[in-house]
């Protein structure tokens, strides 16, 4: 697989990822014409598709309408039917069944509103030129086909580019409004209203928590009350003892 082709596919995938929300694991919707061309070019879709899109967990789908169309076409497309039967069957609401092109176009349109309806974002793989052109005009859908015996992811169509640009403008509008408001405040000198600071709860005063010291009272001569009496009493006892001797 050529490096140039892989790089080109990587750029397209990045575009659809950031502009339209297509993220791995990818879901590829195939029709009978794509399966028939893969058989003709001897392309193993289960092997080559994950390598090309660099997604080992991708899933490929067909619809009941696609399988029914291949069955009705009979023996010439029996090989394509066998390939299509290997893949999962995507739910489609068509009763009675429609043509494969109408069915795939319907599912592709619904997938554009997948954010609201929680539907699958589909890639569409087909060789039907009319269907490809219809989806290019619809825009916002990754399109795949087989060209020069290899799988090819188309570059975004003009309508897809317009949708992406409109989406970007819509997302940026709130930012522009905020910028205008800020400029007006600066020009008119309108500042933000001062915010009152909330008073934080303060702890107790550490000085008030200290134990009070007991202050000893002193006499006018500086002596401690009671100390003189003790000394006097002790002196009298000594004099009495001497007299007794």
What would you say this structure looks like, in words?
The chain is of the alpha/beta class and 245 residues long. The protein has ten helices and six strands, in the order H-E-H-H-E-H-H-E-H-H-E-H-E-E-H-H. A hairpin with a 2-residue loop joins strand 5 and strand 6. The mean pLDDT is 82. Involved in rRNA-processing and ribosome biogenesis.
Alpha-beta content class: alpha/beta
Mean pLDDT metric: 82
C-alpha-based Rg, rounded: 45 Å
Can you list the strand order of the major beta sheet?
3-2-1-4-5-6
CATH architecture of the domain at 3-164: 3-Layer(aba) Sandwich
Overall morphology: elongated
What's the helix and strand layout?
Blueprint: H1 3-20, E1 27-30, H2 32-40, H3 45-53, E2 59-63, H4 64-73, H5 78-84, E3 88-90, H6 100-111, H7 114-117, E4 122-125, H8 129-138, E5 143-147, E6 150-153, H9 158-188, H10 227-244
Parallel strand pairs: 1-2, 1-4, 2-3, 4-5
Antiparallel strand pairs: 5-6
Which features does this protein show?
rRNA-processing protein UTP23 homolog, elongated, ribosome biogenesis, 6-stranded mixed beta sheet, Rossmann fold, UTP23_sensor, alpha/beta, rRNA processing, about 10% strand, 10 helices, about 240 residues
Describe this structure in a few short sentences.
With 245 residues, the protein is of the alpha/beta class.
């Amino acid at each position: 697989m050529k490096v140039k082709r892989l790089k080109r596919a990587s750029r397209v995938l990045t575009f659809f990822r950031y502009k339209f929300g297509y993220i791995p694991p990818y879901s590829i919707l195939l029709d009978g014409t794509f399966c028939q061309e893969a058989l003709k070019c001897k392309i193993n879709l289960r092997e080559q598709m994950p390598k090309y899109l660099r997604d080992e967990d991708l899933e490929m789908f067909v619809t009941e309408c696609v399988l029914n169309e291949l069955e009705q076409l009979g023996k010439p497309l029996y090989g394509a039917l066998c390939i299509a039967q290997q893949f999962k069957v995507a739910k489609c609401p068509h009763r009675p069944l429609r043509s494969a092109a109408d069915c795939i176009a319907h599912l592709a349109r619904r997938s554009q509103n997948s954010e609201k309806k929680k539907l699958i974002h589909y890639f569409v793989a087909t060789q039907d030129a009319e269907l490809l052109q219809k989806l290019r005009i619809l825009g916002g859908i990754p399109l795949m086909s087989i060209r020069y015996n290899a799988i090819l992811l188309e570059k975004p169509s003009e309508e897809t580019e317009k949708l992406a640009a409109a989406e970007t403008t819509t997302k940026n509008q709130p930012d522009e409004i905020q910028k205008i408001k800020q400029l007006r405040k600066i020009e008119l000198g309108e500042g933000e209203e001062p915010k009152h600071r909330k008073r934080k709860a303060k702890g107790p005063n550490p000085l008030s928590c200290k134990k009070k010291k007991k202050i000893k009272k002193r006499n006018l001569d500086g002596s401690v009350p009671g100390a003189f009496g003790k000394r006097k009493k002790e002196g009298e006892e000594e004099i009495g003892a001497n007299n007794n001797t």
